[in-house]
Amino acid sequence: MKNTSTRKLICLVSAALLCSVAVACKKDKKSEDEGASEGGGGGGGGLVLNGTMEAERSQTIQVWGTTQSSETHGSGCFAGYLPSEPQLTFTVETPTEARAVATSVGNDLTMVIVGPGGPYCNDDFDGLNPGFQQTWQPGEYTAYVGTYSEIAQDAAVEATATMGPPQEGGAGLGGAAAGLGDALNQLGNSAGAALGNLGEGAQNAVNQLGNALGGNAANATPPNPDATPRNGAITRAAGAAATTQAIVAGGSDQANSMNLGAGCTGLITSASPNVRLSYTPGTQGMKVSVTSETDTTLVIRAPDGTWHCNDDDEGLNPGVTIAAPAAGDYNIWVGTFLPGNEPAGTLTVQEI
């Protein structure tokens, strides 16, 4: 949940952006999509995606929310309050790059999409409007559109849900928001360094705001799990003692703009992982953690293609626990929040 100081900061940032960025919001609405066949209503409801979206599909929906998204979709899913049932569904038969957004005049909406690789959670993709722009993998998806503040069903607000072809620059604020997001991340880290432990809360709040603005402003290149790891490889079998690997964190690619899933954040080098872990599990769970003098993050791709992420597991050090790890290769990226900062650290793998 956003506290009062963070909300005030958002207001100040929004005012600055409005003064410096002209956003064109007029779009032509088309009723049919050459790359998607209809199995129900528009706006993503009942759509079947087959590789290409040539035109937008829109649908009017009623939006309300009484259940916090983190209660039903995990602690890393910060997307306000959601309704009890999804308003929209869509099916992907062939990987399709598309943009899904929800808009409502004067209302701060949120969105959670549940499906392969998700849940995907978002608050402010374009202004106060939530959304995603990514390549959707084959499978069934359900979309919940909620509100930042709790609203009862009998006080529901009207909104428009739209699914359409990707737009250059991602969210409407484009590169200006990306630059401001980087600046806010730098401000957050400076505050944390200056105030010590007392500043960790302020640092995290500003970092999250910076990533929300900068990361959603442009399409980042997805992490490449096939590239040679930059810092080393680990082969580990069940029963072994804790294994460590020296790493150099950071990069210039915003993890939270890649729609990898809940909690995926920080600046990483998407071109190649830091470490590749080849793991043979036993009966215990596995934990991957990083220690560093700088606030770092973890982004991990499991052998089945799912993503596991964390920011602050112990203080400013990230840690990811997988209760029933599968056998295979885990590709691991270690991120930071400060552009140009590539701190050294230690990655540890252990059974729990």
Please describe the structure with a list of short key phrases separated by commas or semicolons:
alpha+beta; Jelly Rolls; six-stranded mixed beta sheet; five-stranded mixed beta sheet
Describe this entry's structure for a reader.
This protein has helices at 4-20, 69-73, 174-195, 200-215; strands at 36-38, 47-50, 57-63, 67-68, 81-82, 88-94, 96-103, 109-114, 120-122, 131-136, 139-147, 157-164, 232-237, 243-248, 253-254, 267-268, 275-280, 286-292, 296-301, 307-310, 319-322, 328-336, 344-351. It is of the alpha+beta class and 352 residues long. Helix 3 (174-195) packs antiparallel against helix 4. The longest helix has 22 residues, at 174-195. The chain is elongated and about 55 Å long. It starts with a helix and ends with a strand. Mean pLDDT is 77; it is low at 1-45, 171-183, 189-200 and 211-219.
